[in-house]
Amino acid sequence: MSRKPQQLKSIGSLLLVGAGKMGGAMLDGWLARGLNPKRVAVIEPLPATLVKRLTRRGLKLNPKGKPAQAAAIVIAVKPQTAPAAVPPLRSHVGKSTLVLSIMAGRTISFLEKHLPPGTAIVRAMPNTPASIGRGITVAVANPKVSARQRKQASDLLAAIGKVEWVGDEKLIDAVTALSGSGPAYVFLLAEAMTKAGIAAGLPAALAARLARETVAGSGELLHRSDLDTAILRQNVTSPGGTTAAALEVLMGTGGFDELLTKAIAAATRRSRELAS
């Protein structure tokens, strides 16, 4: 669940490694929730203009000199750069430092091999709606993470949306397949609806607008409603009507349910392959 803005004021010194799209979204969320830029250091070889401007408010960008230990380190670099980016962080890790990684495919075991023994590590998988503060992140901790550090990680992740915790890191592969890759499935739905509308005779621009707004509006309705998804679907479906005719196709053999089950299974397998 999202935390109150003032709770980030007590996070302490924070080192953000990677300030691209996801790291930048997290930084924006932290500052909006009251974190003082003077408490933040950022390591980013290609910083965006907004990050550079934050140095005027005290943010430390690519700090030089003796590495300072941080209360929390957030690793938001691309996973392929991890072998080069993670080992230098050892000097920033103290006895009470929390390391929070949002790198896809990089396991807790990988991080433990490159960081000091006994480091408290949380691995998290956010998704792209985090860029507008509407993401969903699933996190898992190693045994070294204390209750205080777990709350600290929740507070940091809540800046980009809702947070769920699991106890088994193996579930992260399925999480990646469902929510991590999930936005692409929704965008594909809008894309396919547009094409189907054109095939049914609608002008291309109108079909695109109708598909886009239908998906966006339905998502917002789902967000605001406490009703089960099946109930929401049934509320749109009149017996013998147009929606029922469409759902008979989508929910039939080889339809939507079966295709998504296969798709998420394929994404889960690929996530495991990448992690290994």
Describe the model:
This protein is of the alpha/beta class and 276 residues long. It has helices spanning 21-32, 49-54, 82-85, 108-114, 147-157, 171-180, 182-199, 204-224, 229-236, 242-250, 256-275; strands at 14-17, 40-43, 60-61, 70-75, 93-101, 120-125, 135-141, 161-165. Helix content is 46%, strand content 16%. Strands 3-2-1-4-5-6-7-8 form an eight-stranded mixed sheet, sandwiched between helices. Strand 5, helix 4 and strand 6 form a beta-alpha-beta unit. Helix 7 (182-199) crosses helix 8.
How would you sum up this structure in a few lines?
Helix 2 (49-54) links the parallel strand 2 (40-43) and strand 3 (60-61).
Topology:
Blueprint: E1 14-17, H1 21-32, E2 40-43, H2 49-54, E3 60-61, E4 70-75, H3 82-85, E5 93-101, H4 108-114, E6 120-125, E7 135-141, H5 147-157, E8 161-165, H6 171-180, H7 182-199, H8 204-224, H9 229-236, H10 242-250, H11 256-275
Task: For the structure shown, list the relevant keywords.
276 residues; alpha/beta; 11 helices; 8 strands; 46% helix; disordered N terminus
Low-confidence parts: 1-6
Work out the helicity level: 40-55%
Radius of gyration: 22 Å
Query: How far apart lie the N and C ends?
Result: 31 Å
SS-based structural class?
A: alpha/beta
Q: In DSSP terms, counting alpha (H) and pi (I) runs of 4 or more, how many helices?
A: 11
Major sheet characteristics: 8 strands, mixed
Estimate what percentage of residues fall within beta strands: 15-25%
Strand segment count: 8
Shape: elongated
SSE topology string: EHEHEEHEHEEHEHHHHHH
